[in-house]
Structure prediction request, 360 residues.
Amino acid sequence: MSRVFNFNPGPATLPLEVLERAREEFLDFRGTGMSVMEMSHRGKVFMGVAEETESSLRRLMNIPDRYHVLFLPGGASMMFAAVPLNLLPNGGAAGYVNTGSWSTKAIAQAQAYADVRVVASSEGTSFDRVPDRDAWGSLNGLNYVHITPNETIGGVEFHAEPNVGDLPIVADMSSNILSKAIDVSKYGVIYAGAQKNIAISGLALVVVDSELVGDAHPMTPSVVNFAQQSKNDSMLNTPNTFAWYLAGLVFEWLEARGGIAAVEEANKRKAAALYGAIDGSNFYANPVRPTDRSIMNVPFTLADAGLDQSFLAAAEDAGLAGLKGHRSVGGMRASIYNAMPQAGVDVLVDFMREFERTHG
Ligand SMILES: *Cc1c(COP(=O)(O)O)cnc(C)c1O
Prediction:
């Protein structure tokens, strides 16, 4: 049995080395005679895993000491609700930038708990861009500004933090965390579901400035209360230990590859190869404004949508999986997260050229 190149958007491909290591350790974790899934999260062995995982992430992202690193349940969607509950004082208001499907979901969830103001949106141009900062509405009276730095479905990415003055930026980095170097101190909260660039589903990573933590709404469930969870090492209830452990293996893998700077270079090369193939043909097209294109998720359409099914079937035959675009936008999408090797993108590009030659 051989592994395919897996372009799924999430859950997504994991580094082969990480899977092999997990397999080696599966039955007997570090000489305990049990798997990492079968031991107490509060025991010495797992506490060690938790600590190593956090320190590795702190090194990779260069996280300032005053930030808490939390491993919480419920994925990124749980954080859509947890963020306003934790951050907004009574009578507070939150600004949201709407750049696509995931922003729209974050906004809808926040509206249940907060006075939400959409300060900018690219809905009018079918979410093909990041709204230019000078066209945003007023930020007066807001407590934070929420952005989705990478829209996983639409393939739109912020390539710099917007200037929002002293307001904290809250960022849903589910699909581009650890893909490039960022300055964490420019953010109030960074959160991410783990199943794209970190590990597997069911876990949310939260990096939060301790200065923003402490006055959660009294109705905040304690398992997503940032202050309580930081006091309890994210172990207020039983955490998703297997996902946490895998995150540690992925962080170790990233460090061994030379850290985020090296990974960022590799990611840019992969994205350039794919966008180059799309732009260099009249058969494939990407709808996103070139300055705002994602380096992680590359949606593209075929000149004739009637060929979509044959494209996908032929791709499967060529060992290229998960290329179907999201049902809301159609077409194709190649998710090329950190764990996708250059070889996978090269095979995809060759496949696309050959498909165009025979069907174009
Ligand atoms: C996948 C994704 C989510 C949802 O993550 P869950 O862990 O399923 O809740 C949220 N935001 C973005 C940007 C995503 O890519």
Summary: Residues 10, 75-77, 102, 148, 152, 172, 174-175, 193, 201 surround pyridoxal-5'-phosphate (CB under 6 Å). The chain has a mean pLDDT of 97. Residues 259-279 form the longest helix (21 residues). The chain is about 35% helix and 15% strand.
